[in-house]
Amino acid sequence: MGNIKLAIVIMLKLFLSLCLYGYSLHAVADTIAVESPTSSARHEVTLIRDKDYKCIQCHKDSKQTLSGSHGETAHQALGRDVNCVDCHSSIGPDHREGAPKVIKYSSAQSQAGSDKVFLDPDTILKANSQCVDCHQPSDLRESSWTHDVHAKNLTCSNCHDVHATKAKVLEFEHKQRVKLCVDCHADFTQLNKEK
Question: What molecular function terms (GO) are annotated for this protein (predicted)?
Fold first, then answer.
């Protein structure tokens, strides 16, 4: 009977040892499984979405012309790309049906003329506020004295068109800039002389 007891005790010790060994293997496997994703180079899914995709379906050239005037420099200043809704906010779902919810930019001036829409100075400042959100007045003043003189009198769109093949004025040579000034001033000067 002593041999049977000894055999049972050995078998129980062996069973207990196997259970502890199996548990330790399981614990090591869990540790490796937890550390594995961080140590291995797994594919990480990131969302790459063009925020302007829907706009570009109809306004095909707008993205390219915007990049010409608001490309690298804007990206460096803002730390991101400029997209349509940065300037044309309030784009509603019914925009495609001609709803007037999109902010549009057009030429206007505070003095009567024949070519441009007349707006009071406060409305012109409001119209220019979207541009001034990024283009600081101090920087504009340094780049050209004309910004101070025309801030309340003209919308930015009179001289700047960011969706032209070459951004209006930003790419003009000196002669072309002078011609733009002369043409505009001649327009309302002539109208005032006629009165």
Answer: heme binding
Q: What DSSP line would sit under 65-94, residue for residue?
A: HHHHHSSHHHHHHHSS---HHHHS----TT
pLDDT in tens, 113-167: 667 788 888 888 888 888 888 888 888 888 888 888 888 888 888 888 777 766 5
What is d(CA 138, CA 185) in angstroms, rounded to the nearest whole number?
25
Instruction: Please tell me the distance from the alpha carbon of residue 151 to that of residue 154, in angstroms, as a whole number.
Output: 6
* pTM of this prediction exceeds 0.70: no
Q: What is the pLDDT of residues 169-188, one digit of tens each?
A: 666 777 888 888 888 787 76
User: How far is 135 from 77, CA to CA, in rounded Å?
Assistant: 10
The answer for residues whose C-beta is within 8 angstroms of residue 114's C-beta and 6 or more apart is 187, 188, 190, 191
Burial class from Cβ neighbours inside 10 Å (0-12, 13-18, 19+) for residue 124 reads: buried
Alpha-carbon distance of 185 to 195, in angstroms, equals 16
Residues in the chain: 195
Contact 114, 191 (CB under 8 A): yes
